[in-house]
Amino acid sequence: MVDEKKSSSVSDVGAWAMNVVSSVGIIMANKQLMSPNGYDFRFATTLTGFHFAVTALVGFISNATGYSASKHVPLWELLWFSIVANMSITGMNLSLMLNSVGFYQISKLSMIPVVCIMEWILHGKQYSREVKIAVVVVVIGVGVCTVTDVKVNAKGFLCACVAVLSTSLQQISIGSLQKKYSIGSFELLSKTAPIQALSLLLFGPFIDYYLNGQFISNYKLSSAATVFILLSCSLAVFCNVSQYLCIGRFSAVSFQVLGHMKTVCVLTLGWLLFDSELTLKNILGMATAVLGMVIYSWAVEIEKKAKANIPHTKNSLTEEEIRLLKDRVENTLSKDVELGESKA
Predict the structure, then answer these.
(1) pTM across the whole model
(2) What pLDDT does residue 316 have?
(3) pLDDT tens digits, one per residue of 205-263
């Protein structure tokens, strides 16, 4: 039992580590790829289509070689999920274009309370006081170190609302679909990735044209840019797999809260690698965010222990218990019959 707990803890840490490392890596690779000082590849939506195409290819190879099993999930559920996920991607890109960076960061931070409210509405989930305090501390910390100028307009606000709601619903759905159909994180990703890839590669170039006024067909692709696109796609596979894995193991709220460790890492690496400014305000904000994450982890652990100590009452018998009960009744009846015969 102890060995199982240790193994589970190692797997949990591994999933988080994979997500943080791959997410930070893909942000750094995309920064070099999309920056005007880099390769000026400004086709974020189409690039995301490439990401899911490579992920779908990895999933197909995995299923073909027998490494992973394919379980049935209704097509309408996959289509609905893919539409919500693509709305999230498109909404985020439009929000970043139409709003200031400061408001974009605020909209991303609002996902934590939005996920909490949506889980409460959809699944009746309750949160302890400690968890609520931890969420507030994380939001304040990340807000202090990322939010600067805040400018918003009607179109940008609408896009931000769509992005926040669709992203929150997508992340909640990842966990609920895995539980509903008893399907693993990689198996679910293998089913949704082809649909997302196809739709994003079809409509992505037009969305990118609206965002930056240039078609991808006019981009002069260099060998160095190709290398960074392939690097971005490779990291995206690990990023996507670890996202599904983390949400399946924990929850959408935990993924959002602890996921802000990526924000801290990106700010730190930006200072180390790209000479980005790191002020005292940034440092204090990052320290507050990390403190909030520690409090959150502690609060979740307390919740787990409290639930483990609550005695569970059985409302139904298992098949084995029913079988044993039937055997006992039959034996009792046969003994009563034998006793009746002997008396006679």
Answers:
(1) 0.73
(2) 47
(3) 999 998 888 899 899 889 999 999 999 999 999 988 888 888 877 777 777 776 677 77
Contacts of 159 (CB under 8 A, 6+ apart): 91, 94, 95, 98, 99
Q: 125 Cβ partners below 8 Å, 6+ apart?
A: 116, 119
CA distance 139 to 295: 13
CB 169 within 8 Å of CB 84: yes
Rounded Cα gap, residues 152 and 99, in angstroms: 5
Tokens linked to 144: 């202090």
Tracing tokens 């403190």 back to the chain, one arrives at: 291
**Between vectors from CA 59 to CA 111 and to CA 41, what angle results, nearest 5°?**
60
At 5, list the tokens.
Answer: 């707990």
Count of other CB atoms within 10 angstroms of residue 27: 18
Residue 47 corresponds to which tokens in the numbers above? 């690039």
Q: Nearest CA to 29 among 269, 323, 309?
A: 269
**Radius of gyration of the chain from its Cα atoms, rounded to whole angstroms:** 25
* C-alpha pair distances (Å), 114 with each of 111, 228, 268, 294: 5, 34, 27, 21
Token digits of residue 311: 């005695």
Amino acid at 242: S
Alpha-helix residue ranges (DSSP H) falling in 99-212:
101-109, 111-123, 129-146, 154-180, 185-212
